[in-house]
Amino acid sequence: MTDTLTRQLREQFTRSDLLFALLAGLVGVAGSYAVAGYTRQFIVAPIDAMVVRLTPGAIVAFMIQNVGEQGHLIHIAMSFGIATALLAGVALLGLVAARRLGRPVAGVLLAGVLSWGVTAAITAEPALAIGAAGPVTVFTAVGATPLAAPEHDPSRRRALVSGAGALTFVGLSIGLGRLAGGSTDDSGDDLEPADEDVAALMEEADGKSLDIAGDIPGLVSTFDEFYNVDIAEFDPDLSAEDWSLTFAGEVGEEREVTFDDLQALPTERRFVTLRCVGEDLNGHKLDTAVWTGTPIKPLLEEVDPGGECGCAMLRAEDDYFVQFPIEALEDGFLAWGMNGQSLPQSHGHPVRVLIPGHWGETNVKWLSEIELLEEEMDGYWEQRGWHGTGPVNTVAKLWSDTMLENGNFEVAGHAYAGTRGIERVEVSIDGGDTWADAELSDPLPGDDVWRQWRYEFEPEESHEVVVRAIDGEGNLQTEEESDSFPSGASGWVSKTVNPMDAMGN
Ligand SMILES: Nc1nc2c(c(=O)[nH]1)N[C@H]1C(S)=C(S)[C@@H](COP(=O)(O)O)O[C@H]1N2
Ligand SMILES: [Mo]
Q: Do 378 and 407 have their domain in common?
């Protein structure tokens, strides 16, 4: 049965057809990249979004635990594969039609029109779709041409030349795509009018940052330092003018808020720290910025939320969604500025939510809708097994250990406990037998901000350094160790350091 099927298929096209179809698929994807760059107009982008949506939760959870950051690469490779296969399939159809009809031109036209149609349908960009359709058409034509005169088909040579041509085209396209896509310049423009209040806060943070010899962030993370977690490979590309936020579901009155509406509300600047539930205990998905925006509460009160569960689903333009209690949302902040610039694309341009003291995943970027619910529903990550919508765990990070010129050894890092605040950080240099207080940075204004700590000691050969924080309610950071999945990593960060080795370097 399969045998006859394979045979039948084989009768439809030759090995040369397959080769040219594959080349056409590759140059089609490359051509799309050449005109669109690494943006949502690139044919791979919507496919990636679909892959993200359709990947079953169990697989995503497995990938996060076992594959980690490379998971994104696997996703994107799959999406590239699908895009290439789609365009190659269209080219193959054209080649088969060319032979069947005995009219190469008809087959080539078919491949051209279909590749344009498929790309336009996927990207919703009819004009840019020519970037993919052009090269697909050309390579289908090359593949179909010798049919007219098979006796002139030096096929090996033709395949080599075409392959080289395709590679050259892909190379050129990568160069062009880099120019076309604005993905490199990530940071936004300066806020208008120049925001002196932000400047003053940044200066305050600078002044309060400890003098740490090791290379770690200050009290405000720079755009380069600030971590990023995105479910999609391609960030939504939204303009402030076209953006709006809808309050829907169990509300007394539906309401749509535009960017201008937001700007007309009282503007505040806040230090807010974000931490991802998926990070390792001593990981670096913990950062702080000065955010410009407006509180959510007055808007919520206007729409008069109802609903049994007292909960809301927040949705975003990348099809991200997360649900948590209105109680937490009420303390939230709608931010359009970060460190004195308009919100960068990768951090949710033009508007994101900040929920004090809760895990990063509640801080929805590219926010589009707040739906008040009747009953609880899982969010994107909850569907995939995570429990990351509640308050953050307390943590003291050990991010640097440095031999100082004065012969002492310095250990340092940041500590964070959400809205509970950090009261104290303790350091042990003997594996937890004895403890001493670390130097702490003066607190910054705000009720959801990390602090820096630093500890200096006269070193011996080797030390097991352990750090732990005490939050503002007097609770000691839990010693019990757990993985980040599903509720955030716990335990005390420890590290064996060999100061004398360091000195030898
Ligand atoms: N729309 C949208 N919002 C999102 C995410 C996302 O993928 N899409 N990721 C969430 C997660 S898991 C975290 S930890 C934070 C990260 O914010 P950042 O990328 O600005 O650091 O954003 C949250 N908000
Ligand atoms: Mo996260």
A: no
